[in-house]
Amino acid sequence: MPDAPDRRHAGASTLAPPDAVFEPVRSQTAFEETVDRLGTAIKLGLLTPGSRLPAERELCGRLGIARSTLRQALTALAQSGHVFATRGRRGGTFVADPQPPAHPPSPQMLAQWRETCDQRLAVELGVVVLAAQRAKREELDALDEVAAALEGELDDFIAYRQSDIRLHVGLAEATRSTSLVRSMTEVQGAMTDLISYIAHPPEILSSSNAQHRRLLAAVREGDSMRAARVMSEHLQGTEHVLAGLLPGG
């Protein structure tokens, strides 16, 4: 990488972004919420193209997160084209200029994307509670194999998404409810249409699959309350990523 940023960045606006951009995030979804916070600030112009982000130590202190969490979030934003890093005396992390091109979602989709997430939350929470009560060992063994396969698909989003759907639909099948399987299939289809508009850096997919592992462990132990809590965190993480990276969202 270059030792110093491009000349155009040296003259970038030095106006400080609003304090709300760097308020502490919640620990349960720290990685995803950091992507959301910074990605949204970039889209809204609160962090202007070419501007330099605060130093890592300062950002960690203001956001209330570990340095490893911040670096994961910055890596995800770099892989999606929203920021880039340079080394050297004048180095740091800068907002990309220009931002990555993207075909904007339709106004209708932008107006309804949170409702789609709400529908998914309602279905998935019911599914995981019942799965914790009804899933058989062999079904969970098969889902553990899917989660293991996902680790090898972090660089291939199409393959990852197919396996991800198999895992969530598999949980619905473990409830023995035909209507829940149908509802799960429908919300997964709606979510696939929605997340096709955002970048899918491996850091984000890896974090998502770590939540899958925790979720399956809770279901295997029959702990429906913990399973519901982990599922809620998992879905909130996806919503944060959408809010941060969805073009025009």
Write the SSE topology.
Layout: H1 7-10, H2 30-43, H3 56-63, H4 67-79, E1 83-86, E2 92-95, H5 107-134, H6 137-151, H7 157-173, H8 178-195, H9 202-220, H10 224-245
Antiparallel strand pairs: 1-2
Helix pairs in contact: 2-4, 2-10, 5-7, 5-8, 5-10, 6-7, 6-9, 7-8, 9-10
Describe this structure in words.
The protein folds into two domains: 7-95, Orthogonal Bundle (Arc Repressor Mutant, subunit A); 107-245, Four Helix Bundle (Hemerythrin (Met), subunit A), CATH 1.20.120.530. The protein has 249 residues and is mostly helical. The model is unreliable at 1-14 (pLDDT under 50). A two-stranded antiparallel sheet has the order 1-2. It starts with 6 loop residues before the first helix and ends with a helix. It is globular. The chain has ten helices and two strands. Helix 5 (107-134) packs antiparallel against helix 10. 63% of the residues lie in helices and 3% in strands. It has helices at 7-10, 30-43, 56-63, 67-79, 107-134, 137-151, 157-173, 178-195, 202-220, 224-245, and strands at residues 83-86, 92-95. The longest helix is centred in the middle third of the chain and has 28 residues, at 107-134. A hairpin with a 5-residue loop joins strand 1 and strand 2 (92-95).
Number of self-contained structural domains: 2
> Any idea what the CATH architecture of the largest domain is?
Up-down Bundle
Counting copies of identical and different chains, the oligomeric state is single chain
- What's the tally of helices? 10
- Compute the separation of the termini in Å: 31 Å
In CATH, the homologous superfamily of the largest domain goes by the name: GntR ligand-binding domain-like
How is the largest sheet built, in terms of strand order? 1-2
Reported by name, the CATH topology of the largest domain is Four Helix Bundle (Hemerythrin (Met), subunit A)
Largest sheet: 2 strands, antiparallel
Overall structural class, as computed from helix and strand content, comes to mainly alpha
Our Rg estimate from Cα atoms comes to 19 Å
CATH class wording of the largest domain: Mainly Alpha
Fraction of residues in β-strands: under 5%
Helical amount: 55-70%
Poorly predicted runs of 5 or more residues = 1-14
Overall mean pLDDT stands at 88
